[in-house]
Design goal:
Elements (H helix, E strand, L loop, with lengths): L1 H6 L4 H14 L4 H12 L7 H6 L7 H22 L3 H4 L12 H17 L4 H5 L5 H11 L9 H24 L5 H15 L6
Length: about 200
């Protein structure tokens, strides 16, 4: 169904960008999804059944799915900040490296903030060089070297950033709430969570 919708986009560049974004969001093989989009765009033609099977979202265990849901907003926000370094200034006082609670995301956030605060710019390649593990490098490269598709309307872009910032901050609170046994701290977190639900960011 999503392939059919993507095939209706007239602009080839927009169609390619949105296809890539959908593939990443839903963990779909990019080549197979592109094949389906092209198939629907030209009005049919034989497509091997394996393409439809491989283009389906990959099944993961409940734990993996839970981890992905927790990590995805953090990764997306970091990618956005790499693509739009001005966000470091615009989001100052709203979100900081301490809000990124997944270990790898926290490391990346610490390095990005340090780069921006000391030099006024960021160097993704320098971050990659800090990691030796190949799988970790692949994941980090996907975060800091991805060109993000920006919404055409400025207000839509601002709304998307506001939503992902809220998800990251709420995720941080939920993470702490699940581990704290301090009643006073738990009450503070509940209040913080209510406040963040109504968060509004003016970019």
């Amino acid at each position: 169904e999503v392939a059919k919708k993507l095939s209706t986009l007239d602009d080839p560049l927009a169609r390619e960008n949105y296809t890539e974004a959908v593939a990443k969001k839903y963990f779909i093989d990019i080549k197979n999804l592109t094949t389906l989009v092209t198939h629907y765009g030209v009005g049919g033609g034989y497509v091997p059944p394996s393409v439809f099977e491989d283009a389906a979202p990959r099944r993961t265990s409940r734990q993996e799915a839970k981890e992905q849901l927790k990590t995805a907003p953090q990764q997306l926000l970091l990618t956005w900040m790499v693509n739009m370094p001005e966000l470091f200034t615009k989001l100052k006082g709203i979100i900081g490296p301490e809000d990124f609670y997944e270990p790898v995301c926290r490391k990346i956030a610490d390095m990005l903030y340090e780069q921006y605060n000391t030099k006024g710019s960021i160097a993704p390649a320098a971050i990659l060089n800090k990691f030796d593990d190949v799988e970790e490098q692949k994941r980090i490269a996907n975060i800091v070297q991805t060109t993000l598709e920006i919404e055409p309307e400025e207000h839509e872009n601002a709304k998307a950033i506001e939503d992902v910032v809220r998800k990251v901050k709420l995720g941080k609170i939920d993470d702490e709430m699940s581990s704290t046994q301090d009643i006073k701290r738990l009450q503070e977190l509940i209040k913080d969570k209510a406040a963040i639900q109504g968060l509004h960011i003016s970019l």
